């Protein structure tokens, strides 16, 4: 039985999508300070908190990794740097602000090419493709583009696996 060209193309596209959905992301490597990054003046865990007070939600403190599906982005906030990775691209941006209000931490970062805003929300999240469960939700906006929903976890936590 021979398939028509449109059906064959559709099968090929479906196979690629399924293959990508089954891929696991590699755990982040130990970060290195990006060239030109300013030394941290205060720990990221205290960003946005009034002096002498703890942030409103401890789950939002510290380094964090957020990821989205379609488009596939990963934003790693380590100290005063935000590393943005996508299919075929990578940018290192300097964190310019990190504020916690209620159950949301808003991180703003910039480089000569533009600005990124990452919101990390203290609400559980389930990956829409793999079904993996994350302790935090995320919203990522790149260079003024439409915000994209995703999931997040503390950088110290290993990536969650797919449910069994």
Overall geometric form: globular
> Count the strands?
10
Strand content bin: 35-45%
Q: Which oligomerization state do the chains in this entry correspond to?
A: single chain
Alpha carbon gap, first and last residue: 37 Å
Low-confidence stretches: 1-55
Rg, please? Answer: 18 Å
SS element count, helices:
1
Strand order of the largest sheet: 1-2-3-4-5-6-9-10
Q: Provide the helix percentage.
A: 10-25%
Mean pLDDT: 75
Structural class: mainly beta
| Biggest pleated sheet | 8 strands, antiparallel, barrel
Order of helices and strands: HEEEEEEEEEE
Can you characterise this structure?
The chain has a domain at 49-158. It is 10% helix and 39% strand. It is built from 1 helix and 10 strands, in the order H-E-E-E-E-E-E-E-E-E-E. The chain has one helix at 5-21, and strands at 64-68, 73-78, 81-86, 89-101, 104-111, 114-121, 125-126, 133-134, 136-142, 148-154. An 8-stranded antiparallel β-barrel has the order 1-2-3-4-5-6-9-10. The protein has a two-stranded antiparallel sheet with strand order 7-8. The longest helix has 17 residues, at 5-21. The chain starts with a helix and ends in a 10-residue tail after the last strand.
